[in-house]
Write the structure tokens for this entry.
Amino acid sequence: MTSAGSVDVSGARSYIHQAFFYETPDELIDALVPFVNDGREAGENVLVVISKEKGAMLLERLGTSDGFQLLDSVDVYTSPTKTLAAYIATVRGGTNDGRAMRVAGEPIWTGLSAVEIAEWACVESACNVAFAGSRLTMFCPYDTSVLDPAIIAAARQTHPELRSVGRIVTSDHYFEPSQFHSMVRATDMPSPSTEHEACSIVSADELWRIQLFVDAFSELHALPPKLTNDLRAGVIEVAKTAFEGTAGPVKLFLWIEANQVFSDVVGSWQSVPFAGYIPHSSEEHESPGLWSVGQACDLIAVREHGAVTTVRLKFYNDTELVNPTCQEYAEFLGVYAIGACNPSETVMIEGHLAECSSCWDEVERFGSVVAMMRVARASDAAWPTTHHPDDDPPTD
Amino acid sequence: MPVTVERRIVDNDTALQIRAALEALPAPEKNAIVTAYFGQCTYHEAAVALGESEATIKSRVRAGLKRMAEALDDSSWVVSS
């Protein structure tokens, strides 16, 4: 045990992961100043990631920005899986010359959904796997004056050491990372928005239908090409992973909320531990895919209830998106009825028809007309199979 | 499958009914349906062929089909299939 104000990195332990509970910015700066100074004196790589305001306070107290790196939390804590990947790369780079490294990092906990808060806690827990054996000290500040008690409780479960002003203790509530992730996976996943689009596929041979479905969804919502590509690749990769563990069916839900696009892939399969968080290279893990998905989306969350697994992805769009209204779908009903839509539009409209009785009624009504037109088109006697509009006789 | 004389007559009758219903449409609606359906192309292609926007073709096909469905209801004609 060490005295408050300094962190022991000289001892036998190679990896330290400590939550620091503070109540005022001054308490945080009081702890960070020796954290940085000790690291610099020991010749370690030192990285501090905090808000711009707290960063300014720290610089003022230190009097210099030499010998350590200071980053704004806004730039680093972008998405759980991307941020962890960035830390893994940074720590690898910062310790590969045999030097030790110390990182102080404070995520942004405001404006997050319960699912997102749980996933950021998963990052803290996954660090204990990703950095086990590294010569790394991680110092994670938690402002107890503002943070939700659930966030503090999770910090006690994901950090082996807990520190507050004047004391450091071993956490009695600490869970092994695999246990913690299992606990998070057993928590509730809110249902998709009621305005979702859904499709179900029964085998991996039908993955092409998912592609059509995503493309039609993107077209209807006018999603930008990059987002469409990321969404399509992400959803297909998750579905592929699902079919490695299930005979099907696998359901896909897509929806938008404000400037966010969500997808849920739901099926009866078991996802690998830390999917999306830790790059799996060993043979026991079948899915390097979910790691790459985690790098392309803004959130990947796995929840397991009984035999049913849900993998949710979230993608941010630059601008606010709007769900197509029933009226917008209805504009397609005529061209849909005569089979003049492209395949992706057809998939999307059929998704809407399954849920909208008034549109369904209209298509059924057109059906009897189209049935007659089909006879006429096939009949060589009364109607040419090709007809140029310029040839039409004038109508009354 | 052999086409019976009776079947052929019914089909011809259907074709004439449809032709009559199409002829009764406003020209823009008829052109949109004829180009997309009888020309066997997508509405995107029909829009290019007719020099109209895709939205225009969509709304004309829909309006035309509605009108035809009403006309055929009135004539109490039943599709024989």
User: Anything to note?
Assistant: The helical segments of chain B are 5-23, 27-38, 43-50, 54-74. DSSP finds four helices and no strands in chain B.
